[in-house]
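Q: What would this chain look like folded?
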Amino acid sequence: MLTLHIADASPETAVLVDGAHIAAVGPYDELAAAHPGARVRRWPGILTPGLLNPYGPELLEQAYHPDPREADRLGSEPVFGARARALLDATPSARGASARRGVQRMLAHGTVAVAGELRGRAALDAVRRAGLALAGRPAALPGSPALSPVPLVLLPALGAGRPARFAVFDVPDRDALVQEGASTCVVTVVGGRMVYRRA
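A: My prediction, written as structure tokens:
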């Protein structure tokens, strides 16, 4: 079934999805007229190609992502350093559970691809199950490891025939996205599926 994604602040960049791929990109009015049977998903903000998080190993193998039940003790942000290593080694399942939570948090920040060499099976499995793309690391890394790194790294433009991998951010334009960050994510689509949707 065809699905037409449109974001209110960027109607010129509507995306028609057919299965796991993009069928067309263009103005919403044109795509809607050409495909009247398509299911329409309307979002606030802007639709973008999605983000590359360049800190795959740092966030998914070296950081510990607390379970919500641990928030009173550990908070809700990734834990780094010696404390993270102790938490990751605490039980056999700790690394896998942390990596899965880390991937979910990345998806909630519009991440559709990660960079850096992942070596652990737990992180690789979490990334593959979510359908995140693995990409080359930029020559110069921005800032420090974060779910919303500064500066944000947008993937190349969307196009017909490419994998349906994009995100929508509740901001009026790209300048506002840069200023407000990736926590403004409303929905993340990977492989044509909504893998994150803000409640």
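Residues 52-135 form one domain.
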